[in-house]
């Protein structure tokens, strides 16, 4: 006790603002349930496992720790399983985690000799007792973040509900026998709460659902709210109310009054229809879900090094699937596992290692690759008198701290909403590149990076070149290149017949287009006509032809299949298509040759008198193609100008990454004027110069980013040779510069090593699963479930990861 009293100055009583970690070690994935328990530093309130606590003592000198140890209790009987009603895990109404109960023991431990004192004990100093009580009473930092994210995703009250207009037209709705007012549909019916019209819902791709009459009625009238008939019961909060202008399911606090207006007594109605959320959950049983997750297959569970699952934190499968593949690559495995120990990363980390990307990425890599946490789990349904047995299923590790770090610079990833795996992958690599900026030779993200060169040949016979760097090769899917066109025609006829008869198309009758990967790669390199291209050689607008190629071949080539297209209202829709992907591909023919002997570059210059200063003109061909995809016309013009009319692909990529920009609707001319004025803001220029950038580049970056220093910095990093970019010209007369200098390069033969597949109708919902080729076999990683794959869905991937084969 005297030893403890002599160290009281190193004990703090936590305040409400302190973050207290008590669920997981900040260096490893040890928890209070691990063999050695968890040690909470009573000065910093960081938690450490048995193998790591001594490192913290060496680094900080903090000797006093609260030791938590939890031992599992036997469960007397099986818990009844409830059917989920939410796309969530571990929350009320979501999937049941079937958590076991644990008995907790607490002790005070003093390092370096691990002197142990019991808790609770009246002999302990009051300061220690108060500190321990405050730690135990406080909500853990991990739990706080999780709860905050869940709250953000609850169904919101509609802003149209309180002042909803209801027309007094004498309409009385009967308790049953409903039918669409514009067709014969008798299910999936929606009651418009303004005028009492009963209309059918949206049509699904396979002909099921409705005939779109309810949403068409909204477009004609603007009446905002509708409730799904068959979901109205005495529990009004469970009724499915949809707001068309808000484009989501909502709460209507006055639903009882709104129903009474049409004579509906909700207390006597029975539930006969699934809500929108329940129908989405029901998709778990359809063909795609079962095929990608290999449901119904005898999948052999796997454990050991490299076979560790990731616990779903709530729609975090996009992160899990992506990181499983990334960490399986030699570049990331070497950087964050083979050559960097947990202790080394901790010693380099700041005072709070939970906010350090290098530390948390090292922690995640060790957790996934070491095999320490990939061990068979104890059965959770043992009865009180039975001996515990083991099952090959593992519990997996929760990537909480890694997710918190990677989301710190991208607020959308901090929510519990589903995200796009591609967007996450690119954001992750960007953060890794920044973290390794001081030592670029150690940057594993470079193994994915490569150069792309666009060659534009105008009718004068002269050329111009544009180069850029990227981490992924994004490919269009040319549906007209499908190899099963005859089968598709037969299916379309069958589908039309079934719809006319009011029948549904069964999953085993569905025929999807099959497009070879070679056709997708060919579409990337295919010549593309550019109309109204201003030629500085001809001093007039003419037609040009653009071709694209790769200037370097990365160690790992990631192919992104553009399965999502934009519908009206900027809603992404998924193409239902199969891609035939071989195990080995050769892209040697896609290498760009650069400026060739005999080629003449287009001279400098801009159209004389054709455009006003700071008012670049968008390429109408690019704009029209983007508009035909469903994008806003003004946004398309802006995208064309922002990408210097390089092409449709570049403009669409710009659009997808700038949809949420606050200035997306600001006219281009105003932006140009504003940017010109901002160029006079010397303080911002000086700030960028202090970062080490040249003044000319700093001014150019501020001009294109609207004066935002952070965006300007991003622009400079994404344009490795920004000094060669002429923002006011469509062409350049300089030869291509080697922007890909120092990047990995080699032959063009690649082997497929990983697939990230998406299940669902859009990037905003559904589920992601990874398949990885490891030790001569395919392995499925479905969150915390890891097993030998029986039938990997190679034709259903969203992201394909290829490793370059050495000659």
From TrEMBL:
Keywords of the record: Hydrolase, Metal-binding, Protease, Repeat, Thiol protease, Ubl conjugation pathway, Zinc, Zinc-finger
Enzyme Commission numbers on file: 3.4.19.12
Catalytic activity: Thiol-dependent hydrolysis of ester, thioester, amide, peptide and isopeptide bonds formed by the C-terminal Gly of ubiquitin (a 76-residue protein attached to proteins as an intracellular targeting signal)
InterPro entries documented for this protein: Peptidase_C19_UCH (IPR001394), Ub_carboxyl-term_hydrolase (IPR050185), UBA (IPR015940), Ubiquitinyl_hydrolase (IPR016652), UBP13_Znf-UBP_var (IPR041432), USP (IPR028889), USP_CS (IPR018200), Znf_UBP (IPR001607)
Residue spans of biased composition, Basic and acidic residues class: 608-617
EC supergroup of this enzyme: hydrolase
Domain of life from the UniProt record: Eukaryota
CDD domains named among the record's database cross-references: Peptidase_C19B, UBA1_atUBP14, UBA2_atUBP14
Identification of the protein by name: Ubiquitin carboxyl-terminal hydrolase
Organism from which the protein derives: Carya illinoinensis (Pecan)
């Amino acid at each position: 006790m005297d030893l403890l009293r002599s160290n009281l100055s190193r004990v703090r009583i936590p305040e409400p603002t302190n973050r207290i970690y008590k669920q997981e070690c900040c260096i490893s994935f040890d928890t209070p349930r691990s063999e050695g328990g968890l040690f909470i530093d009573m000065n910093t309130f960081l938690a450490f496992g048995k193998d790591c606590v001594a490192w913290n003592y060496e680094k900080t000198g903090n000797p006093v720790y609260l030791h938590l140890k939890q031992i599992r209790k036997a469960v007397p009987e099986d818990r009844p399983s409830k059917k989920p009603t939410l796309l969530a895990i571990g929350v009320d109404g979501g999937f049941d985690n079937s958590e076991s109960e644990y008995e907790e023991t607490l002790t005070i431990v003093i390092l370096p000799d691990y002197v142990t004192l019991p808790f609770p004990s009246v002999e302990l100093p009051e300061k220690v007792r108060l500190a321990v009580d405050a730690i135990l009473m406080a909500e853990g930092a991990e739990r706080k973040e999780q709860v905050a994210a869940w709250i953000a995703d609850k169904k919101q009250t509609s802003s149209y509900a309180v002042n909803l207009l209801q027309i007094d037209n004498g309409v009385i709705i009967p308790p049953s026998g409903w039918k669409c007012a514009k067709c014969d549909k008798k299910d999936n019916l929606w009651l418009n709460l303004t005028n009492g019209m009963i209309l059918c819902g949206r049509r699904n791709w396979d002909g099921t659902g409705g005939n779109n009459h309810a949403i068409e009625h909204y477009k004609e009238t603007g009446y905002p709210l509708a409730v799904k008939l068959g979901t109205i019961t005495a529990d009004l909060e469970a009724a499915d109310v949809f707001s068309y202008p808000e484009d989501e399911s909502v709460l209507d606090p006055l639903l009882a009054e709104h129903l009474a207006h049409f004579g509906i007594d909700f207390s006597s109605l029975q539930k006969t229809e699934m809500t929108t959320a329940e129908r989405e959950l029901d998709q778990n049983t359809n063909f795609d879900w079962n095929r990608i997750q290999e449901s119904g297959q005898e999948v052999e569970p796997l454990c050991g090094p490299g076979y560790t699952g990731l616990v779903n934190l709530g729609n975090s499968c996009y992160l899990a699937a992506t990181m499983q593949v990334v960490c399986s690559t030699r570049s990331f495995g070497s950087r964050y596992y083979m050559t960097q120990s947990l202790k080394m990363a901790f010693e380099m980390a700041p005072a709070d290692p939970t906010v350090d990307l290098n530390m948390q990425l090292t922690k995640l890599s060790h957790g996934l690759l070491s095999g320490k946490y990939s061990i068979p789990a104890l059965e959770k349904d043992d009865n009180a008198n039975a001996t515990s047995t083991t099952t090959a299923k593992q519990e997996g590790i929760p990537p909480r701290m890694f997710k918190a770090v990677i989301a710190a610079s991208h607020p959308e990833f901090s929510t519990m909403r589903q995200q796009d795996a591609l967007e996450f992958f690119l954001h992750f690599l960007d953060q890794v590149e920044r973290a390794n900026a001081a030592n670029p030779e150690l940057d594993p993200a470079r193994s994915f990076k490569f150069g792309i060169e666009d060659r534009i040949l105008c009718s004068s016979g002269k050329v111009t070149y544009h180069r850029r760097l990227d981490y992924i090769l994004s490919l269009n899917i040319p549906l007209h290149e499908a190899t099963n066109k005859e089968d598709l025609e037969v299916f379309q006829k069958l589908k039309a017949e079934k719809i006319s008869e009011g029948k549904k198309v069964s999953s085993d009758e569905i025929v999807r287009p099959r497009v070879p990967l070679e056709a997708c790669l060919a579409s990337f390199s295919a010549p593309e006509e550019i109309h109204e291209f201003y030629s500085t050689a001809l001093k007039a607008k003419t037609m040009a032809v653009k071709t694209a190629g790769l200037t370097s071949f990365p160690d790992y080539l990631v192919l992104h299949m553009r399965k999502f297209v934009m519908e009206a209202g900027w809603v992404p829709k998924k193409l239902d298509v199969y891609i035939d992907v071989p195990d080995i591909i050769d892209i040697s023919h896609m290498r760009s040759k650069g400026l060739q002997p005999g080629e003449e570059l287009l001279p400098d210059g801009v159209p004389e008198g054709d455009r006003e200063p700071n008012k670049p003109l968008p390429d109408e061909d690019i704009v029209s193609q983007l508009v035909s995809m469903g994008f806003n016309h003004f946004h398309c013009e802006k995208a064309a100008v922002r990408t210097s009319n390089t092409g449709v692909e570049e403009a669409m990529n710009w659009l997808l990454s700038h949809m949420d920009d606050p200035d997306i609707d600001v006219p281009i001319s105003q932006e140009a004027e504003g940017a010109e004025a901002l160029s006079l803001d010397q303080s911002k220029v000086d700030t960028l110069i202090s970062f080490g950038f040249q003044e000319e580049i700093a001014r150019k970056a501020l001009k294109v980013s609207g004066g935002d220093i952070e965006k300007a910095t991003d622009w400079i990093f994404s344009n490795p040779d920004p000094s060669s970019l002429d923002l006011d010209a469509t062409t350049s007369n300089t030869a291509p510069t080697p922007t890909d200098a120092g990047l990995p390069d080699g032959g063009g033969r690649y082997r497929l090593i990983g697939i990230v597949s998406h299940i669902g109708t859009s990037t905003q919902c559904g589920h992601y699963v990874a398949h990885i080729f490891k030790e001569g076999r395919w392995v499925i990683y479905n969150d915390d479930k890891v097993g030998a794959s029986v039938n990997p869905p190679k034709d259903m991937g969203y992201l394909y990861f290829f490793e370059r084969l050495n000659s």
